[in-house]
Amino acid sequence: MLTGDTFARLCRAREILRDVQDQRVTLDAIAREAAMSPFHFIRQFRAVFGDTPHQFRIQARLDRAKYLLAVEHDSVTNVCMEVGFSSLGSFSDLFERRVGMRPSDYRRRARCLISVPGTVPPELFPGCLTLMERAFATFEKR
Amino acid sequence: MRIKLTSILVDDQDKALEFYTGVFGFVKKHDIPVGEYRWITVVSAEGPSDLELALEPNANPVGRTFQEGLFKQGIPATAFEVEDIEQEYKRLRMLGVVFTREPKRQGPVTVAVCADTCGNLIQLYEAPRN
């Protein structure tokens, strides 16, 4: 069983990992703050959140990048830097592998979908049950 | 008006489908691609077969804030009824599921809380026997 203390520390660690602007974060430092050995920390983190801290960090970066590309006006290079990648090439490759398109294409698509400036298009950031309607709409067409 | 569908936010739909079927033991009902995401629902093998749980991506920042906030406070996102909580607790522990609360009797029900590896705490409860 997870004690309340350990649970709180793991939640805190997740917040630190989610903050992609803080680029000095190291695994050892987070594990230390969580009062665990790095090995134990990785195991516990994965058991609770389903990803290793490293996988979680990469996903957090990509999520943030998607949001910035859709909503903000920074260049792709700036978005890449802001989410902590130093090479545009490796950022674009990873983005394409995970999201299925290049960052610039993602931005173009997002821009076409935004009807109210500053809002997030539900097609890219679904919430609520918007997916259900669209799922069955595509079903009909088949 | 009927209640036939409910949903839970998950941080990754692939991971969620794996956990909700492979670990919790639910059965996939729908899995329809919608752009980058999917409309995924599961049902319980123990029935009713027409009561669906949608595994909804928490891609929307508002949903994510809500989900992480609840989690951090230790509040379960939803609850599932089990036949025998002690047995279920043992079974899930063997599969590596982490519990934040061991089975504990609360009046007529026995309740336990575990992490679903998709950003939620789930309350499991054994209903009182008649």
CATH class of chain B: Alpha Beta
Give the number of domains of chain A. 2
Helicity range of chain B: 25-40%
User: According to CATH, what is the topology of the largest domain in chain A?
Assistant: Arc Repressor Mutant, subunit A
Strand content of chain B: 35-45%
Amount of beta strand of chain A? under 5%
Q: Secondary-structure element sequence of chain B? A: EHEEEHEHEEE
| Low-confidence parts of chain A | none
Report on this model:
The complex is a heterodimer of chains A (142) and B (130). Chain A has 142 residues and is mostly helical. Chain A has two domains: 1-50; 54-142, Orthogonal Bundle (Arc Repressor Mutant, subunit A), CATH 1.10.10. Chain A is 67% helix and 0% strand. The termini of chain A are far apart. Chain B is α/β, with parallel strands linked by helices and 130 residues long. Chain B contains three helices and eight strands, in the order βαβββαβαβββ.
Any key phrases for this structure?
heterodimer; A: 142 residues; mainly alpha; Arc Repressor Mutant, subunit A; 2 domains; 0% strand; globular; B: 130 residues; alpha/beta; 2,3-Dihydroxybiphenyl 1,2-Dioxygenase, domain 1; four-stranded mixed beta sheet; 8 strands
Q: Mind sketching the topology for me?
A:
The complex is a heterodimer of chains A (about 140) and B (about 130).
Chain A: H1 4-18, H2 27-33, H3 38-49, H4 53-71, H5 76-82, H6 88-99, H7 103-113, H8 130-141
Helix pairs in contact in A: 2-3, 4-7
Chain B: E1 5-10, H1 13-23, E2 27-34, E3 37-43, E4 52-57, H2 61-72, E5 78-82, H3 85-94, E6 99-106, E7 109-115, E8 121-126
Parallel strand pairs in B: 1-4, 5-8
Antiparallel strand pairs in B: 2-3, 3-4, 6-7, 7-8
